[in-house]
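Lab notebook, bench 4. The sequencing result for the construct came back, and we need a structural model before the next group meeting so we can plan mutations. Quick request posted to the team channel:

Model the 3D structure of this chain.
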Amino acid sequence: MTTLAEPRHAEAIKRGVAGRVVDRLGGGAIQVFLVLVAVFWLVPTLGLLVVSLRGETENNSSGWWTLFTKPAQITFENYSNLLASGFSSSFWNTVLITVPATVLVIGIAAMAAYAFAWIEFPGRDAVFLVVIALLVVPIQIALIPIAKLYGLFGIFGSIAGVVLFHVAFGLPFAIFLLRNFFAGIPRELLEAARMDGAPEWRIFATVVFPLAKPAIASLGIFQFLWVWNDLLVALVFADTSNQPMTKALQSQMRQFGTNVDILAPGAFLSLIIPLVLFFAFQRYFVQGLLAGSVK
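Done. Here's the predicted structure in token form:
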């Protein structure tokens, strides 16, 4: 027995050492690869920033990379022209649309997901299947019926109408995502809170919701990016006085096809906010994606 055990032990040691070497080499190679991917991914963003800091004459005569050899080309006149064109109002319209649409979706979906995961009521599974079925409903088929409905209630063209549309179509995915996360919370935690006499709303607020921060952060990033970058819904339901940045940039392209000194800084401002948000919450985003994968 000792003779057989020794080779196995030696083989296990060799596999362990080899495995550690492979892991270290693989980890370093993967890190280098990811850095290269990140650099290539950020090159268009860097180019857009440089274009927004160059004059129209320089952009028409040479490539954006020439700024690194001629830094005197840098000017903030494009951003001054952008603000003078009324783009700041479109920026605040985008904020007024995106923030409520994100907060409402998270709040409503979290409460609905908790009910689907931990509260017994008649028809719960059937209602949840209906919510899942709504995931496959395309936005395009709802534009005309909802436009007519908004006209009856007098909210067509308003910011409230755009927010309500984003909330309605964001809820099915949000409920599905959070319900699956809530279902993975240990039942013992909830039972202990119920034995202490805590009502359901208190269990949700003090036990479930704090534990769901990674999933909620992931959902918030998805919803924020979807609403912030939306153009179709804004084109249909927002009038000129309430238009977000995407519609404002689209109108600039229609009227001034070569107006790069307006389009470049506007596009960069519309890009930098989601980028900063993603990098600020990337830790929670990764935790939300990996939630439930390891027990």
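The two ends are 36 Å apart (CA to CA).
Will bring this to the meeting.
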